[in-house]
Each structure stands twice: as C-alpha cells, then as structure tokens.
C-alpha cells in the first residue's frame, strides 16, 4: 500500500501492524515516553517513532539510542539533514547528473526494497557529494512516509563512469560522519549495498570506507566486477532497470518518478527544515547559557 503524507497515524499503524504485529501502540508509546524529557531532541512524529522501533527490530532501548544518535548527526551536519528542498538548484543538478530510482516493488509487500543508482552524466564538474547526500536523505524520509517499513533496504549502484576525478571531490569530514550515521542512526534497515562494474575507482572509495566504517557495515557492501551477473543471485531481474540487464523500465523513468514525488512532498521537507532549525537554535542557546 502507498500512503500520502496526510495519511492519519491510526491508518498508517494499522497497515504497518499487518506487516509487523510487533509494532504495537503500547511499544511505540513506551519509546516516546522514554525520550520525553530529552530536550536535545526535536518533535518527532509517531510515524518516525514507529520507523525507529522497526529498524531496531522492536528493541526499545536500541531504538532510544538510535534516535539520539540520529539527531546528533542531524545537528553535526545540518547542511545534509536540515536544508532539504527538492526545488533547490543543487537538487536539480543532482537529478540531471545521477539517476536515483525507487524500484517498483516498494508498494507490493514488506519484502526487501531496492534503490538503484547510476550516472546519467559522468562529468565530474557537475557531480557533488553533498547534493547526493541530501537527495538520499529526502528519499529515506519519502520511502518511509509513502511505503512504510520493510524487511530491508538494498542499494544497487552501477559505478560505470566513476573515476578518480569524482573520488578527489569526496568531502572527507562529511563523508566519514555519514558512514557513522549509517552505522548507528538509521530509521530503516539497511540490508546490503551492491556495487556493479566495480573497478579501480571503486577500490579507492573502499579504502576510505574501511578506514572509517565498522566491520558490520563493510560486510554489507558487495562488489561485482564488470561483466558479472552475480547481482541476479541476490536481486530479481524484475527489480532492476533494463540498462543493467533487468526487466524493468529504463532508469530514466524511475529517476523522473522519484524526483517528481520528492517535489510533491516539498512542503513536508520545508516543515522539517524549520523544526530542525528551531531545535538546533534552542540546543545552541542552552549550550551558551551553560557556558556562561
């Protein structure tokens, strides 16, 4: 089932419980109450509490820690999490540079959900990692609001066209924090990252990843060299676009679809920006008062 951002929580909960009976209102309330005195956190929606409880396999204590870590990273790198607008020029540039595709199995059941990525334009001058991180942050919020929870998120990246000119543009400080966020702050279950056409440029990135990431995250990354069809041992051809041997439509179709869906959800992102910005100001004011 696909939701709209205006779907009432009661309806959202009912459908999510049909997928995961462990998502009870009582458990969600316990999680909320465990954090109600934490003034460092912004207002959090019931849908987001549900997502964290699910991502942590219904462990309230782990969900509590994950929520705290999540918003710590929001405020450490606000340029990624707190300045989201799908109509910004950098988002349009990212849309033209990269195809980022929510594959169509998302609304069928609770099984693994596939996000596919590949270059549309390999010109390193128009490629920006910060724009990519922001776009993926919007996707993460979008997929939870529109499709709810699932067993696991699988990211498939076709790295064809990646070269050293893209690598040297990596903002190490932000990228290292994003890796830590993937480890401890996600409101989704990240199952695997598959990299197709992996070559020397991919190996350069992996050297950086192994420097900053923990073993659990590293083990989720699987590299597939050029010419390999091993990806289809993990993912059905029905869930991938035709450009990589799948039976789906062209990546450009799915890229357009997601981009337009993000634009339709623009008001949600702008409201979230304001909430996070106000919370960040409040936290900074508290720190300043404590320093006096």
UniProtKB/TrEMBL annotation:
GO cellular component: membrane
PROSITE patterns: CRAL_TRIO
Pfam families in UniProt: CRAL_TRIO
Domain CRAL-TRIO: 126-252
SMART domains cross-referenced by the UniProt entry: SEC14
Superkingdom as given in the UniProt entry: Eukaryota
MF term (GO), any: phosphatidylinositol bisphosphate binding
Protein name, per record: Alpha-tocopherol transfer protein-like
Organism in which the protein naturally occurs: Aphis craccivora (Cowpea aphid)
């Amino acid at each position: 089932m696909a939701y709209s951002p205006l779907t009432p929580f009661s309806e959202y909960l009912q459908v999510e419980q049909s997928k995961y009976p462990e998502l009870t209102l009582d458990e969600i309330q316990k999680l909320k109450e465990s954090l109600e005195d934490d003034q460092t956190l912004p207002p959090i929606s019931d849908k987001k509490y549900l997502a964290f409880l699910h991502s942590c396999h219904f462990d309230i204590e782990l969900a509590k820690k994950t929520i705290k870590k999540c918003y710590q990273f929001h405020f450490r790198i606000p340029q990624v999490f707190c300045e989201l607008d799908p109509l910004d020029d950098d988002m349009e540039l990212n849309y033209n540079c990269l195809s980022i595709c929510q594959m169509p199995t998302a609304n069928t059941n609770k099984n693994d959900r596939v996000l596919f990525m590949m270059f549309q334009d390999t010109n390193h001058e128009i490629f920006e990692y910060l724009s990519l991180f922001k776009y993926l942050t919007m996707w993460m919020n979008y997929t939870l609001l529109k499709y709810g929870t699932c067993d696991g998120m699988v990211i498939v990246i076709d790295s064809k066209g990646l070269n050293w000119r893209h690598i040297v543009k990596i903002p190490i400080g932000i990228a290292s924090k994003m890796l830590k966020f993937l480890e401890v702050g996600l409101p989704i279950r990240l199952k695997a990252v598959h990299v197709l056409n992996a070559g020397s440029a991919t190996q350069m990135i992996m050297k950086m990843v192994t420097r900053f990431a923990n073993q659990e995250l590293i083990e989720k990354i699987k590299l597939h060299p050029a010419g390999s069809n091993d990806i289809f041992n993990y993912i059905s051809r029905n869930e991938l676009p035709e450009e990589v041997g799948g039976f789906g439509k062209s990546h450009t179709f799915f890229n357009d679809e997601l981009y337009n869906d993000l634009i339709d959800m623009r008001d949600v992102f702008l409201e979230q920006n304001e909430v996070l910005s106000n919370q960040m100001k409040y936290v900074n004011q508290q720190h300043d008062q404590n320093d006096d």
